Amino acid sequence: MTEASTEITVNAREPLLKKLLVATRNPGKAREMAAVLADLPLTIVTLEDYPEAPNVEETGSTFEENAVAKAAAYARFTGLWTIADDSGLEVDALNGAPGVFSSRFAPSDPERIAKLLELMKDVPEHKRTARFRCVIAIASPEGQVETCEDTLEGIIASEPRGSNGFGYDPVLYLPEFGKHVAELSPEQKNAISHRGKALRKAKAVLRKKMGLSENGS
Known about the structure:
217 residues; alpha/beta; Maf protein; seven-stranded mixed β-sheet; globular; disordered N terminus
């Protein structure tokens, strides 16, 4: 857990797994995660519902460390079961960068994409392999934590395309679909994305904790 999270005050406990906190203030990410989890018999809330919640700094050296720190801290603060993710882009030609610094690579999405494409301008196509990686942590208010992980493999394109999604979606090309991630519909993206696949693993964990079968009964 990060130093920042150790100072968080615990609020009153909510009933076990009646309400789930999706620990993000990113509206695009919140929509993606809520869509995958929508069929669970839970009330889903986000950090937008807890404006007083402090920020938890992503000081970990891995996606897992950051996801666990956020999930555990916000679970303690809200008294709710919480899921948090850390995800980003790993580019092989850049030795895995930007990695855990994906959201801090530059001040905005367009600037991050521009910086990435500048760094990659002389890299030939066969060396432009990359992937989105997502780790999701599921934490109870009492400190129990489990993690789920998945990836989406692709190639860094020479220019951005598409208007769907967010982050680096416009520049990750998926050869098997012939499209950039930002050209996929939300439903297509959730079906194949790193976050969607990790979320389905997390949903299976939540179903088990709720005593539900795979069909929800």
